[in-house]
# Entry
Amino acid sequence: MARERKIPGPDHPITVTPSTARVVVRLGDTVLADTTASVELREAGYPPVHYLPPNALDPAVLRPTDTTTYCPYKGEASYYTLAVDGAEAVDAVWTYRTPYPAVEQIAGHLAFYPNKVDITVEP
# Structure
């Protein structure tokens, strides 16, 4: 069965822009990422999400999971569990490896659930 695919528009706007904000991601007391090279995705009425380049954190802390989700505007997302210093955050990270063209700037970038890690964004 084909998945529904939608194009962002006036009824559901999505923008992706490079950001110079400093984004710091922590799991407990451990800093996992600290970058000024994210892209910010704004989608309809949702809070903005900063997608970090994959080199913003040590790949050794990422454990791929079998979890996937689908967004008709962005495509299929894959998930990772974070594991560091005995702490784990299951499915705390997602990425769109091959997102739809409207959001192609997020390809391969990593986003984090704010209820599973601490995210600080400084202008």
The first strand starts at residue 14 and ends at 18. The two ends are 44 Å apart (CA to CA). The CA atoms of residues 53 and 62 lie 14 Å apart. The chain has a mean pLDDT of 97.
